[in-house]
Amino acid sequence: MNSSLIDSTIFKNAYSTKKMRKCFNDTSRIQSWLDVEAALARAQAKLGIIPIEAAQEINRRAHWKNLDFKEMQGIYEQSGHPIMPIIYSLKKACERSWGEYVHWGATTQDIMDTGCILQIRNALPIIEENIKKIRKICMKLARKYKDTLQY
After folding, report:
1. What total of structural domains would you count in the chain?
2. Residue 18: inside a domain, yes or no?
3. Tens of pLDDT along the chain (151 residues)?
4. 54: buried, middle or exposed (CB in 10 Å: 19+, 13-18, 0-12)?
5. Is 139 among the domain residues?
6. Which end of the chain is more exposed for a tag (fewer CB within 10 A), N or C?
7. Does residue 81 fall inside a structural domain?
């Protein structure tokens, strides 16, 4: 069962596009959170907070294809915590004990908010492209009807 018009099988194309839905689907959301975790690890390694090897391994493994979505769903259902399944799965995907440095010093809100901004950043070119198309249509109509009287 769908929860809104945006993800409705019947109405989704009236309120969104394939390109935009791709920016905000589960895979994109989880990848954005993984991108934040990877960037955090790189920054911490650069500052000497975590070992460089840990950051390298986290970055190698921080891709949604390395995670088990069914397992993550089970973890979420048990914990009710949105980031815990990603942390657990990313730690598990890392070799040796480098996964212990995943999410080091971060808060759930840090990861979720920054990940959301990454998704918005990915959606911006789509919005800009649509604005350009709308502008062309409006300009064409304005030229066509520039001499039309308005009451």
Report:
1. 1
2. yes
3. 666 666 677 877 777 888 998 999 999 999 999 999 999 999 999 999 999 999 999 999 999 999 999 999 999 999 999 999 999 999 999 999 999 999 999 999 999 999 999 999 999 999 999 999 999 999 999 999 999 998 8
4. buried
5. yes
6. C
7. yes
The one-letter amino acid code at 112 reads M
Tell me, yes or no, whether 151 lies in a domain: no
Range of the domain at 51: 12-144
Is 126:23 a contact under the CB 8 Å cutoff? yes
